[in-house]
Amino acid sequence: MILSDILKKIDISLNSNLRVSGLNTLLDASENEISFLENKKYIKDLSKTKAGAVLVKKEFEKNVPENTIAIVCEEPYLTLARLSKFFAPKVIETQGNDCIIGENTNIMSNVYLGKDSKIGKNCTIMSGSFIGDNVSIGDNTTIYSNVSVYRDCTIGSDCIIHAGTVIGSDGFGFAHTKTGKYIKIYQNGNVTVGNDVEIGANCSIDRAAFNSTIIGNGVRIDNLVHIAHNCVLKDGCILTGQVGLSGSTTLNEFVIMGGQSATAGHLEIAPFTTIAARGGVTKSITEPKKQWAGFPLFEHRQWLKLQSRIAKLLK
Amino acid sequence: MILSDILKKIDISLNSNLRVSGLNTLLDASENEISFLENKKYIKDLSKTKAGAVLVKKEFEKNVPENTIAIVCEEPYLTLARLSKFFAPKVIETQGNDCIIGENTNIMSNVYLGKDSKIGKNCTIMSGSFIGDNVSIGDNTTIYSNVSVYRDCTIGSDCIIHAGTVIGSDGFGFAHTKTGKYIKIYQNGNVTVGNDVEIGANCSIDRAAFNSTIIGNGVRIDNLVHIAHNCVLKDGCILTGQVGLSGSTTLNEFVIMGGQSATAGHLEIAPFTTIAARGGVTKSITEPKKQWAGFPLFEHRQWLKLQSRIAKLLK
Amino acid sequence: MILSDILKKIDISLNSNLRVSGLNTLLDASENEISFLENKKYIKDLSKTKAGAVLVKKEFEKNVPENTIAIVCEEPYLTLARLSKFFAPKVIETQGNDCIIGENTNIMSNVYLGKDSKIGKNCTIMSGSFIGDNVSIGDNTTIYSNVSVYRDCTIGSDCIIHAGTVIGSDGFGFAHTKTGKYIKIYQNGNVTVGNDVEIGANCSIDRAAFNSTIIGNGVRIDNLVHIAHNCVLKDGCILTGQVGLSGSTTLNEFVIMGGQSATAGHLEIAPFTTIAARGGVTKSITEPKKQWAGFPLFEHRQWLKLQSRIAKLLK
């Protein structure tokens, strides 16, 4: 798409024949992508961006790097939302190649296989599962019944996905208008699941707004776990039942999260961290190999001590 | 049905040829409906009821209004439960008209379409979804794979329902007998979802016991959210991941609930209220535009202050 | 299978022609089963075991009873995990008898029925549901759309299972290698659901590692509830929305758990106990008929008192 043409659709007039292929964050955008600056705290990222164009408020126009086109608008995030629709792929493809199915793979009855998808060898895809368009699944992977894998997602080899789990549903993203309407930010990224991953029943793992929500190799996820858009789980992480991760949170290698524990968004947890059941993480954890508990979060030993102090209030 | 006849089925003898069409609460019941008084605190409602008949204990017979028939019984709520079965529609209709499907609507393979249902224009209903009997869906609505919409529910236009979500499952209602058996209160209401609503993956929204569970226009619901029977979400509410609402709770316009937050039942939350992640609401919130946190719930600023005081106990 | 043969597959050489049929705990194992001792605290169980063979560390070889074969290894739990694969039944049976369907039972379109399964009279199995191999369902049971019942599970009569629920998914079990790889413990048990049970939408009830996860008669389970492997819910238990039970926990008769409450694993809760919403149970509760709340857990009245004391810290 040509930048002028797409901006015209949302009533912004700007003369540029730059070819644009999508939206992205300041740091990840390429010269053919549009990015945005809404929140002042990312202004350092603006100076580093390689984006072809950036949506900015008038006051930050001067901070846009030389090779990047400034698209000045009052509400960059809202404008981004309006643009996102034009980069969204079709909900369902009607054209394309039939799914390629590897040797010895068992596709059971009532499975939907999307266009241009590919399933490896020795897999089982059980009845009622939905494999969207342009999905890739490795070898020896078992997908139980009534699983939904949205378009463009990838799942590695030697994985087990239990029944009812949803991979690639839209992240929870929208911009607010001044009149209280919510404008959807189309979630044009995907989910990538590594090798040797087991995911329990009735989980939901949202696709990224841009780029990928990433589930690393060897990860183990229990039932009813919620993973929001753009999270990254590095290799060997363990999430037990009913854990919830907010958007853009990174769990480094071998992080363990106990039942019903949760994190806020846009934070990072150091390798080999353990969060006890019900723990609520609201800030990044930088020191590896520690154990944490509670909400607010304390080091586990401190939390136990604190609970005994609190209990003394009864006396 | 004739009142005498239906009461005979549960061994209550009362001579009345009143035609009755269903059950309802004291305040909502019409002259052709049966209501009940179990809990003394609703006795004011009894005096205002327009119900054709009311199940009451002997001691409250005198409080039943003149035009309402008193059905005296020892356990009104249990009796209601026993009666509810006779008003329950069929689990599946075998007769009726085929679903009406609007122009340019894509019904994918392996979708079940119930009798007397109606789907508007430009919709997509993906594989594995179940659209029950007498369901109505507006225009431009996308229903992803493996969604279940139970009978009698309605969904508006411009909605997106993500995979695995269940709309219209039975509310959690039953009466206890003295011997420890639970008698189901058939959930004869429905769910109505407004226009421009997005609901995430693997949510459950229960149908009402009587009348409707209501999701207003413009509402945004994230993944794995539980909404119990007879809740009302007014326009523009936002529920993030893993929120749980107990029965008969009303969220007024633009209430925002953070991840894993929850409410008790039978309460009301004022417009523009924000409940932080993990907040637990146990009483109605009457003042609008405030921010709350914690369980027990405090104003957000107070909660932060309280946490810092609590942390000092460690010293 | 012959013990020598199966051990050879994991490079343990031991000369024995004992016929073995599966794995089990020390106390439940029969003379044709293999058990294990990893954790010293179960050493009393070792002395009572009737297992045909037991995986033990060198230091406990002397504690193995006379009629039981000691299989000495460095990491018994990890060795158990490696063995478990060989006792796992097929993911899908391709041979066997067609499902037996009782009189007046309605199997709707797009239902998968496994081999050697059996469904009673007057049942309804709605579209999109998956009934695995060797499943047994009683009479008058209704299974809503998109439910998954994994192989070998049993469901009683007069039950209602709401849409999207998963019964019999694998428990969350694996052993760690020294290099950080997780070895799956194949979950070779099942789930048994009693009579007159209602289970809400999008729940997950995991199958047992050995033996059965048991849901007793008359149990009521709300939506989005997670029940881990080897839990036992005795008759009349009530679990409200989003409750989570960790593995091997027993709820005795008529235990009630409020919304989002949870338990740790390997504990037991006395009959007629009530856990308030959000309560977190980390130890067994031995005295019946008490009410508890909070996390950490207190008697409900004490918890209320404690909260009022805590609130005073604000002054």
Automatic annotation (TrEMBL), chains A, B, C:
Boundaries of every UDP-3-O-[3-hydroxymyristoyl] glucosamine N-acyltransferase non-repeat region domain copy: 18-85
Statement: the UniProt record of this protein carries the keyword Acyltransferase: yes
Top-tier EC class: transferase
Coiled-coil residue windows: none
Positions annotated as active site in the UniProt record: H229
Molecular function via GO: N-acyltransferase activity; UDP-3-O-[(3R)-3-hydroxyacyl]-glucosamine N-acyltransferase activity
Annotated pathway: Bacterial outer membrane biogenesis; LPS lipid A biosynthesis
Presence of keyword Ion transport: no
Domain of life: Bacteria
Catalytic activity: a UDP-3-O-[(3R)-3-hydroxyacyl]-alpha-D-glucosamine + a (3R)-hydroxyacyl-[ACP] = a UDP-2-N,3-O-bis[(3R)-3-hydroxyacyl]-alpha-D-glucosamine + holo-[ACP] + H(+)
Alphabetical UniProt keywords: Acyltransferase, Lipid A biosynthesis, Lipid biosynthesis, Lipid metabolism, Repeat, Transferase
EC number(s) stated in the UniProt entry for this protein: 2.3.1.191
Biological process according to GO: lipid A biosynthetic process
One GO cellular component term noted in the UniProt record for this chain: membrane
HAMAP family reported in the protein's UniProt record: LpxD (MF_00523)
Function: Catalyzes the N-acylation of UDP-3-O-acylglucosamine using 3-hydroxyacyl-ACP as the acyl donor. Is involved in the biosynthesis of lipid A, a phosphorylated glycolipid that anchors the lipopolysaccharide to the outer membrane of the cell.
NCBIfam families in alphabetical order: lipid_A_lpxD, PRK00892.1
Assembly and binders: Homotrimer.
Family: Belongs to the transferase hexapeptide repeat family. LpxD subfamily.
Identification of the protein by name: UDP-3-O-acylglucosamine N-acyltransferase
Organism from which the protein derives: Halarcobacter mediterraneus
Primary gene name: lpxD
